[in-house]
Recover the amino acids of this structure.
């Protein structure tokens, strides 16, 4: 089969590799129909990752069709359409047993230790089939739409850490695909005012259209902290979420938050980012709650598929680019270019 193989730092080679085989009777093989490019794929491409050992096929926002099933994976069937998400609980540690598989110390993931979706086919091993997020795609969703359940699951995980209450004001810093999903879903959680902070004006329009933001503030042209304070009668926002990879936004989040506000560091920073000093007295006097979030658990991925199916998140509108496997370099460039939003690779198209 054809696959885009990460051979090393910034070296992605499209070549033939052996077809995956059923490793054991508890495993499954998928024909990949859609694999969306994630910001973390781009980070792996440029900087590598301790959990990715080249040569490896990466890509973890996957939707495909079951083409082979071991006799012990009887809950899945050949021909079934399934979406999968990145984090695979090991199933045996305390975190995984408590339903917090994204906290697993082993931290298995599709497209990291396990082969990913930038290939015509991919194996799902026994651990993934048993404990991972492998969910049937609702009939009204395309493979493209279903592939976005993975990032949406991470968004749900972030919002669950924020405890948004009815009538609150939420600020999201960064209007990329995840940022826009955070804005949109914050509204479903009861936020009545949603504000976006975005560096480049290229994404102002999507923050309003996809995210449904009431207002978008540029962090390049003016001080976003002042802008948020002005928009909230000087009080600040109840919830501030950072959905970008800028260090400054972490410090700004503390300043934008209202007394008793909650902050979620949703977006990871590039490896080797400098440690920052936070004005910790802000946390003390404002009684702030700081949270982080990363990845998702299978429950959130299943919920994400339901939300897309119900039209709460219109996944199709996030997809701006489509590429074949042979065009993987262009796909990564487009995803990095920020001109568009989600980029989907179609391994079955030529
Ligand atoms: Zn992802
Ligand atoms: Zn575990």
């Amino acid at each position: 089969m054809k696959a885009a193989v990460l051979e090393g730092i910034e070296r992605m080679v499209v070549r033939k590799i052996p077809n995956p085989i059923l490793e054991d009777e508890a495993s499954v093989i998928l024909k990949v129909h859609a694999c969306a490019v994630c910001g973390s794929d781009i980070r792996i491409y440029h900087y590598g990752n301790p959990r990715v050992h080249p040569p490896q096929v990466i890509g973890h926002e996957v939707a495909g069709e079951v083409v082979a099933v071991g006799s012990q994976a009887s809950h899945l069937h050949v021909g079934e359409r399934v979406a999968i998400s990145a984090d695979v609980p090991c199933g045996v540690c305390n975190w995984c047993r408590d339903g917090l598989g994204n906290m697993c110390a082993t931290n298995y993931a599709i497209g990291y230790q396990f082969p990913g979706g930038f290939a015509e086919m991919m194996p799902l091993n026994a651990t993934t089939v048993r404990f991972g997020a492998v969910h049937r795609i609702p009939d009204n969703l395309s493979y493209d739409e279903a592939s976005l359940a993975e990032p949406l699951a991470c968004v749900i995980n972030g919002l669950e850490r924020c405890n948004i209450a009815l009538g609150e004001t939420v600020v999201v810093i960064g209007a990329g695909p995840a940022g826009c999903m955070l804005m949109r879903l914050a509204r479903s959680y009861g936020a009545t005012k949603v504000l976006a902070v975005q560096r480049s004006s290229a994404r102002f329009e999507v923050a309003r259209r996809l995210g449904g933001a009431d207002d978008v503030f540029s962090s390049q042209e003016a001080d976003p902290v002042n802008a948020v304070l002005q928009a909230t009668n000087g009080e600040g926002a109840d919830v501030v979420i950072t959905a970008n990879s800028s260090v400054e936004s972490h410090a700004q989040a503390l300043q934008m938050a209202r007394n008793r506000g909650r902050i979620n560091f949703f977006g990871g920073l590039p490896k080797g980012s400098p440690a920052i000093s936070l004005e910790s007295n802000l946390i003390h006097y404002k009684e702030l709650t700081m949270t982080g979030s990363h990845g998702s658990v299978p429950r959130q991925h299943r919920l994400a598929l339901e939300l897309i199916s119900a039209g709460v998140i219109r996944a199709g509108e996030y997809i701006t680019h489509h590429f074949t496997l042979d065009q993987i370099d262009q796909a990564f460039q487009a995803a990095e270019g920020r001109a568009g939003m989600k980029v989907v690779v179609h391994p079955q198209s030529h």
In short: The radius of gyration is 20 Å. The mean pLDDT is 96. The chain has two domains: 2-153+296-346, 162-292. The domain at 162-292 is CATH 3.40.50.720 (Rossmann fold).
